[in-house]
Structures are given as structure tokens and as C-alpha cells.
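User: C-alpha cells for this complex, please. No commentary.
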Amino acid sequence: MAPPRVLEGYHASDHLDELIDAEGGFTPGWTTLRHRLQSLTPRDLDRLQGDVRRAVRRSGMADQRRGDRRWRLDPLPLMIDHDTWAEVRAGVAQRAELLGAVYADLYGEQRLLAEGLMPPEVVTGHRGFVRSLAGGLPSDPRPLSIVACDLQRGADGDWRVVADHVQDPAGLGYALQNRRVMAAALPNWFRDVHVHRLSPFVQAIRDALTTAAETTEAPTVVVLAPGPESQAAYEYAALAMDLGFPLVEASDLVVDAGAVWLREVKGRTRVDVIVRCVDAGDLDPLELRESSSSGVPGLLEMVRRSRVKVVNGPGSSVLDGVAPHLPDASEALLSEPLLLGSAGVDALPSTAPIVDRKSIVAAPVTWRVFAVADGAGFRPMAGGLGLIGDDDAEYPGAFRASKDVWVLKASADDSDQGLGDRLSAGPGPAGPAAVPHALADLYGVGRLMAGAEDLVRVSLVLDRWAEDFAERPHSSGGRTLRVLSDALRRVTGREDLDPRALTRGLLSDTTPGGVPQLIVDLIDHARGAQDQLSADFWIAIDEVDNGIHDLLDDEEPDGVAAAGARMLTGLLALDGVVANMVRDPGWHMVRIGQASQRARSVARIADALLLERQGIDIDRGLGQAVLAATESSITHARRYRGHVRAADVVSLVLLDEDNPRSLRFAVGALASHVSRLPGAHGATRPERIVESLRDHLDDIDARSLTTTDGALRPGLRELSLRVADDLSVFDEALAEVYHDSGPKLRLFGAPGEGVT
Amino acid sequence: MRYLVHHRTSYDYDDVVRASYGMAYLIPRDTVRQTVSAIRITADPEPIDASTHTDYYGNAAWYFQIPTEHRRLEVVSSCAVEVVDQNLGRALQMPWEQARPRGPQDWRQHEFTEASPMIAIDEQVREYARPSFTSGRALGESVMDLVHRFAGDFEYRPGSTTITSTVRDVMNDRAGVCQDFAQVMIAALRSMGLAARYVSGYLATEPPPGKERVRGADATHAWLAVWVRDAGWFSVDPTNDQAVNDRYVTVAWGRDYGDVPPLKGVIFSESGSSELSVAVDVEPA
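Assistant:
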């Protein structure tokens, strides 16, 4: 047997350990995989970490905007053997059921309070006790749909609860994503052992949520998440996408005439179930006034009247404080002893092996187990989220690292999650919704994609001229270079005098106007509509990001061309991802964003480079630059046999209907996509604006654009201003019809008003 | 006494309001000393959806939703109320310490002994309360002593307090309106371990001698009540330095103002400001 190289020096100190048992042997969970672990070399560990890191990045889980707070996934799973699972499973199922029963009691009969089994201050003294849902009414018998318990294994070897999560399903989205990454990164390991797969459980979650609406057979379920600026935005979007339910923000929902509605551009849909991924205080500014600017006014009234089901129930955070009283509550409400108790405050959690650079070390581990409502009871997911370090972190993303949890089956024949071929209770997923905020974000995605591509192309053109002529400033090429870099400096507001510093800065500085900032903005918008974008989107973004990092890591002047080409590859891949989107309003909106940005860019480039006549040689160089920056060189060569004249260039990049990179083509595409948005009838304001611009372009005589007045070509400036003005009016009109969530909400009836 | 209560609240906005959602605690509840009938509550523009529910404390809460554009919102409520004086008999003679909730059987009163969102309890307010609660003193006497001291020490001054005024602000300024006085005195009672709740309602005013009653001159009012073991709640009005009598019509009660505002709501509008006007008429019938 080979010496256990990377395990050398692994020791578990005073804690119990999930890899090595008290006698120094391997724990049952690792029996099968121990050889794989033992045969790992430091190099293997390196490779493994690299694979996992890359897969995490490409899944979109890592948040490129917050470099240091990336989602970290340890390559070693937390292994749970079948016997341990059987015990934990029963305990978590009972605890989730009990938490539901406690909720129902506290908001209903209040036996626990009346019989002194729970001190009143725990309940009425808790900020999360929502009085407007309590008393007077029959309480919701099934208030919880998704419950999570954080477990730690103490010195006596039993898993115990350190925290219950009943507000929102924090971590569930990550748990599902982690498994995808691990199954791809460690396929051999995954094949060696019989691990419960998670995918059947997704259907169980879907069922739990659709059956939460007891009133209707085919309920509409939405996932209500905080905006993209929230730290948890990614995981809720990923969860919504996995479940196939639309991801919405509060402003997409409206209470009207005794029901809750989803405001889609095609019309409104009645909502039956809201999976809330926001705190209860942010649900309804009318009754839960913790936040004055968000939420859905009237929502709590609808909950009270059973017109909509919010899961978990809006009053669930009161359960955060009941843990010490659960043993009594269990006897009273379930007539059973509590199986899974709470851990003492000073308990030492067990450790699990994690990869730390070139070795494997032991670190305290917490296991988050999720359970979903299933009939009258709860079904725990055989799997979960392992959390390493930082016990105080409230949100899983703030932990030092996460782990996938592999729960082993007793035998290979066991069905995954014990679910067999269970059929879905509800109808198939509804998919994303064309709600105002998502359409606004998709428009932004389109604009930034085109904007970043155009900027990369222009930068690459400048870089090429700089490479050829920077040393020959008095040649006509050198003078062309100066006009080019002056124009680019003017347009971008940068001050670098050296053209190569200018391109490098544009491609790698995180200052406004540079490519990195455009990509950050692009990611922001993509997060806002993430449920509409395929997972490949993030692979392409990763490629652009890699290009940026190549440039940051590489100080050599030649690096720019290669790094820029890499960014361009990523941006073209993004365009390919968009090409494969379903043809829905969201897709049209991305295309509209791209076309409107492309139109602006092309008009601006032509104006910036060709406005001033420079003499025949420089004009030819600038003409070539315009063609290269607008990716029209080949078309031009084919049509004009390499003879570059300003009039031909202008005609080709601005007015040619058949050149897919021209201004005219972009405006035509804009018109076509706008006309296919819901509600378009040929004469809506956005349609009218675009059509008028198109007609204007069709009426322009190409010669008028290059007619000179002294050294200037005023026609070009006029056209570029017209394009900029028309499209900014177009933006407003489009926003008003499709992106606007209406006026802001305000409160009235402040304390003190009218009271003497 | 029997009264006809008429209450009109209106908001005039400086811009169009596209939608309005409101919650009103304007319907007087039945209590041991009052019976309510002929309840009517409406809003203009007319709500597309409106509904009354009984809240956690047994108050009637009226929800309404107005989907039509408007620049003016008016809510009008009216009812007939039969009110009698409160009568707690000999229970007010009990030593005040005995009136404090204790143990699980008094759990419902427990939350009225604790700080609530708008009522903080601090050492300053405890120090203020203490002289009225000497050892073994009768509950009624202790509470009325505090009411009298309060009326002497605090100045009634409309406009002196704002939304954000706290118990501490009012203690420092020694000035406020009925809602402030009620909340500060609640803090004082809670600091002694007693259960005290906030009551919103109306006080029928008597016209000056020789003058006709003027309609709409009455006002919404606020006072408080302290829990008396085995006898119910003893209501007192620090603003008017007296125990509550048959001229007080109770609308709703809660831990503090925030549980029972007469009217609160959310509008969708670009409007930045609005003008509020309230007219209350409590007419002897």
C-alpha cells in the first residue's frame, strides 16, 4: 500500500472526526472511498481544487463582483453512512413537523402559552411574532413547507441541532448546485459509492410548494426574492430555476380585488403560492412596517383571508427562539419525546477533512439538513450543505467553505431519496415570468453585451495601430494613430497619452467606462433576470473574466491583443447563448438592448473618426479603422476591392441594410424585435420612434454624409446626434411601457396624525 | 350615555395617487361598559375590496383597497354607542403589588408589562413613577396619584411632538399630546411591573356654558388602562387628569399607538405631501 501522503499529519485533536474514528480507523462513510483518498498526491489535490474552483465559477455561483467573497466549495464531501442518516432523517422529520405544530399553536389555540409550556416572553416578546396573523382566526395547519436544521456532532457521537431555519430556504439552492459541481469534478468517486442523488428531491420540493395551495389544482407558484443587490440573489435565482417557478420581486406582485397577481407584460396572472426568500418584515408595508419602501401592500390581508399562501408562513421567525422549549412542546403537541435535541452552547462540533492547499486538515463542520412538507409530515433531503468555519455567519455564503454532503444508500438498489418513480402531484413548471424588472434587466444585459463587445473591438483596433506605428509618429500611420487615440480618449474620458496604456486601461482598469466595469454592470443585470438565462451564460462570462485577469497578470505590451481576443471570444459566446434562448419577450428584450447599443456605437465611431477630413492617407487609415471596429472589413473588401474611401465606408457601416454590423441593420432589428413585444400593435410609442429613425436613415443620401464644409463633414455629426437623441427617447418610452413598476409606494397615517 | 359618533378623515394629495391600501381602527368595539350598534364605514373613492377582521386584541380592523386614481381620500365612519361608567368596586383597594401579573396563568397580561415598539422603559421613567407606588398602597390610589402628578408636571402642547418622539423625549420636554401622555404613563406603570395598555377612542366634549354644541369639534383621543387582577382593566386619562367615565367611547386597544392607529395606509404615487383633516362628532342621543 502506498503511504498515505496527503493524509500525513491529519489529526482530529479533541473533537470527534468524520474521517477517522476513535480507534484510528476510517469511519463507515469513508470505508469505500478511503483508497481514493489515500492515493491522492499533493498534485492531485491542486488539480482537484482547480477543477472545483473552475466549475463553481462557471456555474455562476461565484460572485465576480465580490472577488474575496466567492462561494467556496471544498472538494471533499461530508460522508454520511446509511445508519447515521436513518437516525438523523427521523429526527429532522419530527423536528420540522413539530416546528410546524408549534407555529400553528402560537398563532391559533396558544395551548403552549396557556399551559405554561412556553414562557410568554419567548413569543410575545419576539419581534417576529406577527400579531395580525394570530388570534381570532383558525391558524394555518400547515404553515411551513421548507425547514432546515443545522446539525453538529458532539463528543457523545450524536448529531444535534444548533439552529433551525424557518424564515427562508437559505442554502438549498447552493446545496443543489454543489452537487452538480461535485458530480462533475469527482465522477470516479461519485461512481464508487452509492450516493443518494438529489435530482428526485427537486420534484419533492416542487410538490411541497404546489400542494401548499390547498384551494386550487393547478396553482401558480412564484419565488419572491430580494433584488439582485442582495447577497443571496444568486442562490434564490438558482433555486427558482431548478424548480421552474418564476423569480419575482415585490414590485412584480400586486394585491387587487381580493387576490395577489403577478404583473406580466402580457397581462396579469393570479398567484396562489409565494415562496418567500425575504424576511417577513419586507413582505407588506401596510402591516409589517419594518421597511417603508418595499413589499406588497395588502399581502398580509390576503394571507389572513386565505387568498394566497405564503411559505413559510410570515410569522415563522418567532420559531427562532423556541428551541429550548421543544422537548415540552413535542410531548404536548405530538405526544412523542423529541428525537433530535439542541446542542449545548459550549459543545465541541466534530471535524471533517478539508483540503487546505497541499494537504488535508480537520475543520469543525456543521451539516444543514433540509426537509420539505410531504403530506401531513416532512421529508428530509438525503444530502444537504456542509459548512466549515465561522460559526457566527448568518448566511451560508459567509462561511469559510461549503461541502457537498454524500448520504450513502444501504444498498445499490435503494431508490434515490427513497422516492422511486413517484409521479409529480402538480403540473409542470411554469418557467420564468416576463415581469417589468426582469425585462428591464434583460434590456440592460443586451446593451452591455453589445457595448462591451464594441469597446473591446475598438481597443483592439487601436492596439494594432499602436503596435505598427507607435515608433513612427511622423508616418501617415503614426498620425492616424494619434487621431484614433485622441478620438478614443475623448469618447471614454480617459487621460492616458500613450495609446497602449489607453487600450490596456480600457480593457483592464475597473474605472467607469472600461470593459471590467461594463462586465460588472452586465453581471448585475444578469443576476436580476438570472432565471431567464441559461447556465452557459456564466461560462461565457467566465471567459471574459479570464481575459481581464490575463491582462492584469501580464505586464508585457503584447498581452493586450491576446487578452482582448479572449474577452471577445467570451462576448461572442454570450451572443451565442442568447441566440439559443427561447423566443419569449425576455429574448426580444435582450436583442433590443443589443441593437440599440450597436446603433449608438456605430454612429458614434463613424462620427468620432471621420468627422474631420485629415488628408487622403490618414483618411484611408481611419476608414480602415472604422471598418475594423465595426467588423465590416471583409464585407467592404468584397464589395469595394480594398479601395477605402470615406463615402463608401460611411455608406457601408451606416446605411447598408444588408451589412449586419451597420447602423441601418441595427435599427431594422430594433424595429423588428419591438414589434414582437406583447402589446405592440404597430403604433406604440417605442415602435413609432424606431420607425421614424429607420425612415430617416432610408431617406438619407449617402453623399450628404461625406459632403465637407471646410475640414468637417457636418452630416455625420448631425446623424450621430439624431441617433443618440432618438434612442434616448426610445429608452424612456420602452421603460414606460415595459420596465416601469409604477410609482413608488409611500406610507400615510403616521403616528400622531389627527390624534389629540 | 348614548352617543352617535361620526368621524371623517381626509387626505388631500399634491399629486395623483394611482392606488391606495388602508387599514382603519375606527369601529368602536363592544366592551364591558359599552355596546356598539349601527356601524357604518365607507371610503371615497369607493374601495374595490374591503373587509373587517377581529385582530389579536379583539379590535375591529377595517382593510380597504382603492384601485382608482384620486387626489383626495376620505374615510367616514359612524355608529351608535351606549356607554356606562366603569365600576371596578373594591378591587381598586388591593395593594398595587398584587395587581402585577405573575406566573403562567397571567400570560395574556404579560406582554403589557414589557417594552413595546413605541414604548421603551428606562430608569428615568421608573424614577418618576416610584413615589406614587409606596409599599402596600391601594392600586386605585397609586394610579390616580400618578395621573394627578402627571397632569401637573406635563404641559399639553399640540405640535410639540412628532412621529419619532420617544418616551424619553416626552419625559425630557415635559410636553406633548394625549398619545404621548398615554404612552409615557404606560411606560411608568410597566416599569412598576404592572400591565398597562394603550386605548384609542373619543371623548365627548361639553359645550361652554350658554353655547350650542359645535358639530365636528370633538376629537380622537387616547388614554390607557391598567390591569386589575380578577376585576378587569382600570382606565385613566392623564391628559384630562381623571378616571375614565361614561363620556369616553373606546375604539380599540393594544400595546401602544402602533397597534391601533385610527387610519394608516400605503399609496402608490409620486406625491410628496398631503394635507390631513379630521372631523369628529360625538353627539349625545
